[in-house]
Amino acid sequence: MLFWILMALMMLVATLTQASLPVWAVLGYARSPVLLGLVLYYALNHKLWVVVPVAFTAGMLQDGLSMVPLGYSALLFCLVAIVAARYRQLVLSEAAVTAAFFGGIASLVVSLALYLLLRKADLISCKGSVATLHILGSGILGLVTVPVVFLSMAGLHRSLDLIEEEGVDVTA
Q1: Are 44 and 4 in contact (CB under 8 A)?
Q2: What is the pLDDT of residues 128-147, one digit of tens each?
Q3: How far apart are CA 99 and CA 105, in angstroms?
Q4: What are the domain boundaries of the chain?
Q5: Separation of alpha carbons 130 and 126, rounded Å
Q6: What is the rounded CA–CA span in Å between residue 67 and residue 48?
Q7: What is the pTM of this model?
């Protein structure tokens, strides 16, 4: 039970953190992907039945923070989580390098896919240079933000000894 309470609390903390972190014009006004970092942490360290609800909820919260129609980010977060979970046996899931790699790539891909979806639905109209700057800025922020989220979450789970208590295997 403590595992699920911690997960819900971390979703709230991630949402508030992402909303309150500053954005920089140099990075195309991209936001730090704290919610995506949380999704990637669970995707690389827990079973898929834990990951999908986290990814969907985090995506809905992400859409709620922005002017994106509800469900766009939820779909993309779920796809990213499934792909990351597919490759978790090939990487050291708690390593900062792994978090930086997955964070940078996932942020870049989610930002690009979101831009393309919004462009196709004619919900966004900005110059290609601004969109490119935003997408690259998202990737850079993913490289920096996601390792911090990973290390924080790993420390919390270890300190609370949630692995054995809830039967959720962090290595699986």
Answers
A1: no
A2: 889 999 999 999 999 999 99
A3: 10
A4: 33-163
A5: 7
A6: 29
A7: 0.90
